[in-house]
Amino acid sequence: MRKLILAGACALAFLVPLGGCAEVQKIESLFSIATGNVVPPQAVVVAINAFDSIEAIATDYLNLPRCGTGPTICRDPAITAKAIPLIRAGRADRNGLKAALRANPGASISLVTVYNDLGNTTSALSALFASK
To answer: 120 is in which domain, residue-wise?
Structure first.
């Protein structure tokens, strides 16, 4: 379990916005790439992968025992209450974008609102677990 948490922390460090980190800023700029009515398929794939990474961290966190049951590593009920709706919303957005990619291989996606929602959800989850 400790290795899993450490791996999650390393992945989270990559996703959390850090001032001055060029690689993270490049990835964050992909979330704002949607212009007009379409999003390039490459940006959609990056957004999906970013959400998948933070979703894995969140899911691992939710699998921890509740605080107060004995172990020193536990999940906070306040964070759990915020994380579950974000994960569900992100999964719905991700699944919609994946379906659009499958239906239109190689073409830009017109689901700009869904793409932006996924980016906002990913950022919110990153911020939620960065505070923990």
So the answer is: 2-130
Closest Cα to residue 83, out of 47, 130, 42, 43? 130
| Tokens representing residue 72 in the block | 């020193």
Alpha helix (H) residue ranges in 67-110:
77-103
Q: What is the DSSP string of 120-132?
A: HHHHHHHHHHH--
Distance of alpha carbon 108 from its chain centroid, rounded? 21
List, for residues 96-131, the tens digit of each pLDDT value: 999 999 998 888 888 899 999 999 999 999 999 886
Q: What is the count of structural domains for the chain?
A: 1
- pLDDT tens-digit map of 12-58: 444 444 333 444 445 455 555 555 688 999 999 999 999 999 999 99
Q: Which residues contact 50 (CB under 8 A, 6 or more apart)?
A: 15, 27, 31, 122
